[in-house]
Every structure is written in C-alpha cells, then in structure tokens.
Amino acid sequence: xxxxxxxxxxxxxxxxxxxxxxxxxxxxxxxxxxxxxxxxxxxxxxxxxxxxxxxxxxxxxxxxxxxxxxxxxxxxxxxxxxxxxxxxxxxxxxxxxxxxxxxxxxxxxxxxxxxxxxxxxxxxxxxxxxxxxxxxxxxxxxxxxxxxxxxxxxxxxxxxxxxxxxxxxxxxxxxxxxxxxxxxxxxxxxxxxxxxxxxxxxxxxxxxxxxxxxxxxxxxxxxxxxxxxxxxxxxxxxxxxxxxxxxxxxxxxxxxxxxxxxxxxxxxxxxxxxxxxxxxxxxxxxxxxxxxxxxxxxxxxxxxxxxxxxxxxxxxxxxxxxxxxxxxxxx
Length: 331
What we know:
6 helices; alpha/beta; 30 strands; 2 domains; seven-stranded mixed sheet; about 15% helix
C-alpha cells in the first residue's frame, strides 16, 4: 500500500522556527515531526511513502536520502498551494491501489492496521479516523449511523450547530476511484469531496480512543512533546523528574518542570516550566521561562522573564529582557 503524508504548509504558526527548518523536520524529542507520523505505519503493509511537500522541498529530500527505511520515500513537490484535496491529487501518479493519507503534523494513537482492515471490510470509497472531543468547532465534524457509515460531513461548525463531537482525525484510507470525484486544481478534501460522498453512503467512520494532537501551534507543539514523552515514544534521552533531557545537557541549581530539552544545552539557576529548548542553547542565571519555545543556538541573558514566547534560532537575548507572548526574532 502507498501512503501520502500531507506536509505542504509553510508552518507559519511556528515561525520563526520554520524560517530555518521546514516543520516536518523540526525535532520533537529524539525524532523529527514527520518521523513521528512514520512511526504509525504498519511497515509490513507499506511499500511506498509519498510526502506532499510545498516548502523547503530540497531539505526534506536530503533528509530522507540519508535515512535507511524499510520502504521507498518520494517527495512530491507542490509548486503552489493546492489544499488538502489538490495535494492528494498531485500524488496520483504514484498511486496503484487502495492508499492511506495522513496529515503530516499529527501526534495520534490511531491503529492504522485496524483502520485499513475495517475499510476493506466496509467496501466504501473512503474511511476516516474519528476522535471525540469536547469542543468540535475547530474541526470537521461527522454524523455517524449505527453501522458506522458517515451520513453528513460538517466543516468547523458553531458549537450549537455541531452534528456531534466526533471529529475528522486526519487519517484516511481511500480507493483510487475517488480521484474521479475530485475537482481539478486547488481544493479541500474535507469541504469539496467528503461532503459529496458522505450522503451517498461511501464513507466509513473509524472511532479510536487515546490521543490526537495537531502539532501546528506553539501550545500544541508543547502538548505534542508531552504526549510523546508520556507515551514513551522516545528511544534516547532521559526522564529526569518528569522532564525529557537529551545527552550532554548541564542543568545547575535550577527548577525544571514538564519541559523538553535537546542536546548540549546549559541552564543555570533558573526556573523552566512547560517549555521546549532546542539544541546548543544557554540560559543564564535567574531566568524564568514558561510555555516557551527556545530555538537552536540561543543565548538567554541573566534575569530574563519569558512567557508564551517562541524564540528564533541563534538569538542573543539581553540581560533582564521581559516578554509575554509573541516571538523574539534574531536581531
């Protein structure tokens, strides 16, 4: 089976990090984000992965050329933004039969093998993973029949209008005949295709429990790190008092809580909570960091107070700097 990973966005909500590294290659604990998606795949059922990429394509190609994987990886460029449906259609030449589609920024516990099995038994055009949430207003919502067929597909409804609390969880199994239904050019799979085939009884809903996080914003990036850490989805690094700490880090006389610190970092006499610090960064004494993303090769001066900030790579933050929200860009 072929797999399409949708990774065509610019990752602008994680800027300025993504001005240096495409979002699929950002490190989440000891693996890149896209490798977190690959971890979901049942390798014995997969022969080819197509990454639909639209930003810094050469970086992604170079990265995968240097990996030894059990399946072929093809990076399919997206010259202009095509939407989710257009990106899938752009990969059509690589598809030979039933295929899998996964959004490229998901941290999820969905069982892909079970999804594929249920799809094959259902004999429909499309099967999608479904996850129950308290607030469905940011997602595509479905109405499900007793036999798990999707009756309606509703994109980002108001809370009072939502058909249910079951949302589209970003993983699909599709039959190649679906290409004949898809419009040409840029379009949305959710708005332009699923809404057409659901009333025809050609969509199956696969509910799963566990977790589902879209790692597209600073807050959800931290939630994704926490989810991977708590689910032991890491092979290197150490659990130190509920924090994930990579190799060659020096943490002196500091209070660190629920944070994720990559290799070769140094933290001195500071308080760090719910933050992610990328490699080769230095935090001087008497700093307070909370809900903050620190880029690579950053130096934070003494006595800084940073809350809900995303810090650019290679930044040098002066002593005493205070900031709440927004980004700190390298000067």
